[in-house]
Each structure stands twice: as structure tokens, then as C-alpha cells.
Amino acid sequence: MLNIYNTLTRTKQPFKPIHEGRVGMYVCGPTVYGDGHLGHARPAITFDVLFRYLSHLGYKVRYVRNITDVGHLEHDADDGEDKIAKKARLEQLEPMEVVQHYLTRYHKAMEALNVLPPSIEPHASGHIIEQIEYVKRILDSGYAYISDGSVYFDVPKYNRDHRYGKLSGRNIDELLATTRTLDGQEQKRNPADFALWKKASPEHIMHWPSPWSEGFPGWHLECSAMGEKYLGETFDIHGGGMDLMFPHHECEIAQSMAHNGQEAVNYWMHNNMITINGKKMGKSLGNFITLDEFFSGSHPLLTQPYSPMTIRFFILQAHYRGTVDFSNEALQASEKALGRMQEGYRRLQELTPSESSTIDVKGIREKCYEALDDDMNTPVVIAHLFDALRLVNSVKDGKATATQEDIDELKSVFDTFLVDILGIRPEIVGGADNADAMKPFEKAMELILDIRAKAKGAKDWATSDLIRDRLAEAGFVIKDTKDGAEWSVK
Questions:
Q1: What mean pLDDT is predicted for residues 250-276?
Q2: How far apart are CA 131 and CA 138, in angstroms?
Q3: Which of 370-379, 392-401, 421-430, 460-469 has the lowest average pLDDT?
Q4: How does residue 432 score in pLDDT terms, banded at 50, 70 and 90?
Q5: Angle (CA) 18 19 20, round 5°
Q6: pLDDT tens digits for range 285-317
Q7: What span, in angstroms and rounded, lies between the C-alpha atoms of 451 and 94?
Q8: Could you count the other beta carbons within 10 Å of the beta carbon of residue 71?
């Protein structure tokens, strides 16, 4: 039984889908006005693993991950400039040019990280009609009001009938007492109210007609409207970063309750943040490192490039609800650990079966399932796989034996958990995404090692040592075993 930590109840709960055999999952995607960074990679990878695992368990999953391309104002506020429109103005482009450019780059980065595409990837700008209709229903329910062409959600009125703040644990009475009115927000009855529809100022370049004004939807509205359109009035899982818990997800809950008279989501899941020196990594803070900079090593804070699989492995080595603090040392440790895992996977393919086993592979599969069922505990899964690698290495080094049945079970465990669920590509050497592309490289290494073996056979130790040392200088590790020499990349 899969158990999920539900942020709303603050407990781990057995996962029971609304419709047997089917799962509806919505995850907040990026606002595409700049290149994706490590903070974007974490929710993408976290919920990719959940998507993979639910599919592995036999569920038919409809995974919706939105693209915000309108309505997300600076500082997540109800006033200020639209983030995409601002980028378009600065670069003298159409807003949709900005969206398409960064969305293409985001998809490319996700593909490099081996993040599967969602079932549906709706854009906020493509669902303006649905959002307008959603606002009408909230107005009809009495939990919103019109003010000079804008529509605001009435938080105090809603809080009298329901509890605003229950997801984040905020005390709404304190919030109402301490929130001050900001310049440009005089249209609101209360500073805690939030925009459902904003009247566009003359200089605002992204706007649509509505019954209230020529304007645009509030940022929180898109997820409620698109979640309902593609997953229904109630669905199973809503995910996103912990920084979205308040106000974004809190507002979603209020909108859904006002719109439908019931909550839309059964399980709220939030991944924790990526930090740099203890501070959240984010575009708005200017302390982010883009994924392309990680892959190329071009950022000043980076001492080297890191492969996409190193980044993915780094993120999965921590539980998704724990904070991950960036450092070159931590990434280098992940790189080395991934290298050991990849080398062990390669050695596993080369094991020679014996008639009997001196290793015990029973229980590894069950332990991995237990870890995933315990709120997607990927670091424990990785620990169990390293335990299995010790068995692989002991057999490969001639210190133990394994039957064909045991070897097949080990291969199945690694293919299931490392490759299919954790999504780690089984690269032969670091940076190789395509095994076919590595075949000429491998054949060249086999030729070099064959020449070295002949030199050793002729007792030409000088040539044998020279080949080994030159390969070491080039970044290769040569290991002599009873079955011949093996090579790997440092």
C-alpha cells in the first residue's frame, strides 16, 4: 500500500484513488520567462518519479502539468508588471515569442534530465474562457466582488464560513490584522483579498475581453480552472514546490470551495526547496544557476560541469520533503556515487552464472517497494541498490557465486527501480545518453586492452605499464582481474 504524506492533514495516509485503477494528478509547472534552474528541476523530477511509480503499480495516470504564460505578476503580487510581459518589453519581443523560446528550452532540459512529458500540458493563455466562467461561479456564490473592473476574492467572508489558511497553517485573523494596504491595492476591501481578474492598465500588453473589463486572470485562478477541466471537480493529487503552499495553493483551495462547494484535491504533496547558502534558489532572488549552466559548468559558482543524470541522482539522494543545499562538494559526491552505480550496472551485465549461489538476493525487491510505499523514500531505495551492488561486485571479483536465476533477479531489480522508476539512464560512461553511440568507443578500449594483454603475455612490462599509466592520465581506471582487465572512467 502506497502511503503519501498529505500536507493538508500533516500525516502519512494510504493512497486510495477516487476511481479504482485511475489517478488524476496536477502539478504546478513553470512560469516561462527565463531558463529553468535547479529549483525547477526538483519538482519536475519528484513528480516524475511519482508518475513513473503510479504507472508501474498499474494505475492509468492522467498527469497534468500547467504552463503559466500570463497573469503571474512580479513578486507573486496582485499588482505590478506581468513577468512575461516585462521580459517581452525588455527584449522587444512579442510575449508569446518569450513563452515559446523558454518553453522549448525547458522541454529540452527536462528531456536531458529524463523527465517524462505529462499527459496534458495546458497553457493559462489557452484557457481564458474557462477562467472567466470560473470567476462568474465564484461571484454567484457570494465570495467575490467587483471593484473598478477587477474581481477580487473576499477572504474574510470566506474565512467566516470555511478556514482560509488550513493548508499552510496560517492564522487568518493574525494575517488580516497585520497585513498593511499597499500602494495600488486600494481597490481591495481587505489587503488579504486576492485577484481573480485584473483590469488591464493601458500599457499592459496581455489582455482579453471579459464581462468586467479588458484584462487578464489572476495567477491563482489558472490551476483551479484547468485542474477541473482536465481532472474533474475532485481529483487525487496536487503537487508543487513548498514555496507555492501560500498563497498559491491556499488560494486554489478557497477558489475550489467557493466554486464547487467542496474541496478539489484529496492529497496535497509538496517538495522542499533547493537552497544556496541557506536561501531559496529562485529567479526573483537572482541567486539561481540554470540547468544549462550546470550541464556546461559555465556559472562562476561551479567548479566543473555536471551531467543531467548527476543532477537527477543528486536530487533523488534526498527525500523530496527535505531541504537540499547546493554545493560543488555535494554534487561531486553524487557524481562519484552515480559513477559507482553505473559501473556496477555495467558489471552486472557481464556476470557469469554458476551452478550454485553464495549470495542472497531475496528481499531486495521487497525492500525497494517498502521504501517507495513509505512516501516515495528514494534515498532508501538508492541505499538498497548499493547493497545489491556489493553482491554484484563480489561475484564479479570472484569472491562469490550466483546462479542465472539470481543474476536475472538482480538485473530485473536494477532495471525496475534504477532505470524505470528512478529514471536513471544506465550510461556506460558518464555523459553518454546513447549506448549505440558508445560502441565504437568501447571497441577502441577493447583493442587497447588487448594490445596490453599481449604485452603482458610477452612479459613486456614496460609497454603494459605505459598503456595503463597513459590511460590513467586520460581519465580511465584499469583494473586487472582473473578474467582479464576491466576499464572504467574516473
A1: 95
A2: 11
A3: 421-430
A4: very low
A5: 115
A6: 667 899 999 999 999 999 999 999 999 999 999
A7: 61
A8: 25
Res 111 pLDDT > 60: yes
What tens digit of pLDDT does each residue of 198-231 get?
Answer: 999 888 889 999 999 999 999 999 999 999 999 9
* Whether residue 176 has pLDDT greater than 70: no
Mean pLDDT of the residues in the chain: 91
3-state SS, one letter per residue, for the chain: CCEEEECCCCEEEECCCCECCEEEEEECCCECCCCCEHHHHHHHHHHHHHHHHHHHCCCEEEEEECEECCCCEHHHCCCCCEHHHHHHHHHCCCHHHHHHHHHHHHHHHHHHCCCCCCCECCEHHHHHHHHHHHHHHHHHHCCEEEECCEEEECHHHHHHHCCCCCCCCCCHHHHHHHCCCCCCCCCCCCCCCEEEEEECCCCCCCCECCCCCCEEECCCHHHHHHHHHHHCCCEEEEEEEHHHHHHHHHHHHHHHHHHHCCCCEEEEEEECCEEECCEECCCCCCCCCEHHHHHHCCCCCCCCCCCHHHHHHHHHCCCCCCCEEECHHHHHHHHHHHHHHHHHHHHHHCCCCCCCCCCCCCCHHHHHHHHHHECCCHHHHHHHHHHHHHHHHHHHCCCCCCCHHHHHHHHHHHHHHHHHHCCCCCCCCCCCCCHHHHHHHHHHHHHHHHHHHHHHHCCCHHHHHHHHHHHHHCCEEEEEECCEEEEEEC
For the purposes of burial, counting CB atoms within 10 Å of the CB of 7, is it exposed (0-12), middle (13-18) or buried (19 or more)? buried
pTM (predicted TM-score): 0.86
C-alpha–C-alpha distance, residues 299 and 295, integer Å: 10
Would you place residue 277 in the very low, low, confident or very high pLDDT band (cuts 50, 70, 90)?
Answer: confident
